[in-house]
Specification:
This protein is of the alpha/beta class and about 190 residues long. The protein has a single domain (about 5-185), classed as Rossmann fold (3-Layer(aba) Sandwich), CATH 3.40.50.450. The protein has helices spanning about 20-35, 45-60, 90-100, 110-125, 145-155, 170-194; strands at about 5-10, 40, 65-70, 85, 105, 135, 165-170. The protein has a 7-stranded parallel beta sheet, sandwiched between helices. Helix 1 (about 20-35) links the parallel strand 1 and strand 2 (about 40). Helix 1 packs parallel to helix 2. The two termini are about 20 Å apart.
Length: about 190
């Protein structure tokens, strides 16, 4: 049995300036479909969100989108997904995506992506979950985020252990391998506690 059956992907509702972002999003979507891993994402059809979703569907995979009603037009909610869940708020969106996912991957994105990433890492720090989190730093996009984490540690606002709450990968294959490895270890640790 594979340890990750569904992966929540946080990413931009814009494609970004570097074509490598779109290429990575397409590759991730294709690999998820090939592996039989369901995509959990924000439900929109634009930006990197739309690229990942379209790649999963084009390669025969399954997609669950979670989108607030007020964003259905703005993010072009796609009713043709395997499952489209329309919720009342951004908070509900994040909660539902969390519930549906076995692990989390972060691609380049804007403030919304940063918000989702910080929140899911914080929930892990607080012991609310132990699901693996990996950041795909295409073209070193998330290097500044890594620097911010180091600043938080250096200035005494967190222990060095926060580095272990997520991993950073430079390519899609490394990202998927890291997530699978961490998920397998967590499953083994859980079964030992039973």
């Amino acid at each position: 049995m594979k340890s990750i059956q569904s992966l929540c992907v946080f990413c931009g509702s814009r494609a970004g300036a570097d074509p490598a972002f779109t290429q990575a999003a397409e590759q991730l979507g294709r690999r998820l479909a090939e592996r039989g891993v369901r995509l959990i994402y924000g439900g929109g059809s634009i930006g990197l969100m739309g690229v990942v979703m379209q790649a999963v569907l084009e390669h025969g995979g399954e997609v669950s989108g979670v989108i607030p009603e007020f964003l259905m037009r703005r993010e072009v909610g796609n009713p043709d997904l395997t499952e489209l869940i329309v919720v009342d708020s951004m908070h509900e969106r994040k909660r539902r995506m969390f519930e549906l996912a076995d692990a989390f991957a972060v691609l380049p994105g804007g403030i919304g992506t940063l918000d989702e990433t910080i929140e899911i890492i914080t929930w892990q720090q607080l012991g609310l979950h132990s699901k693996p989190i990996a950041v795909l730093s295409v073209g070193d996009y998330w290097k500044i985020f890594e620097s911010l984490i180091e600043q938080v540690i250096a200035q005494g606002f967190a222990d060095a252990a926060i580095r272990n709450l997520f991993t950073v990968a430079g390519d899609v294959e490394s990202l998927l391998a890291t997530l699978e490895e961490r998920a397998t270890k967590q499953m083994a640790a859980s079964s030992q506690r039973l």
